[in-house]
Request: fold
Amino acid sequence: MKVVTADQIAETVKRLCVEANNVLPDDLRSALEVARQAETSSVGRSVLQTVLDNIAAAQKTGLPLCQDTGMAVVSAEVGQDVHIEGGFEEAVCRGVREGYREGYLRLSVVGDPLRRQNTGDNTPPVLHTRLVPGDALHLTVAPKGFGSENMTRLHMFDPSAGKEDIIAFVTETVVRAGGNPCPPVLVGIGLGGTAEQCIQCAKQALLRPVGSVHPDAFYADMERETLAAVNATGVGPQGLGGSVTALCVHIEARPTHIAGLPCAVCLGCHVTRHASAVL
Reply:
């Protein structure tokens, strides 16, 4: 049995908070470079070049990629042969607190949704924990900015809905969002389950490597069709028009009830950030 201490968890989460906000994953940076070359609008190409310049500046200076350093969403896959010494949730909160304060990241969390008092340390984070086989603890920090988060939509379709209905809903969501989520976006789609599981699936879809292909040929085809439909809207980079509105569409589907067909759409901005570590 592997022993992981609360201090190790806190230190790792702290590091991941800073890393996720300051360093863009290679797959996303490469996708943006390809998008700049493929964009047919001169304004869109200029916007994408500015985006790439910003990414390079963040890497050079060690400063955040975006002024909205997000609400920390922490996912933990805990091996069932791992023993955690100390309080797990407190350690995660401590890591977020120290990461955001010592990393000089913007503190954006209020303690109550109606009585808007800032907590002063970006806690509490959103924490998802899952028990898995093995003796490793896998941690992922995915800061979520609210320009894109506010564009999230959930629709409980009748089970008679088909692929075309889903694609139309996703496309409408992107058009309604316009420039708010800072396109080009990543589009995460959750299908099935219950309402809460459906939204979580859409969030998980945003963490897939950009351009990865769904293992089910049916959904792989649907991802390609949806991406083509979204990019045909002309929303373009930063909503200023163009041929690249989304960099990818990723779908995660789960079993659901015979009487329903939940569909969630979560958008990630052009700097959809995340960093992971294994203890």
The beta strands are 2-5, 73-79, 82-85, 126-132, 137-141, 153-157, 185-193, 246-256, 261-268, 275-278.
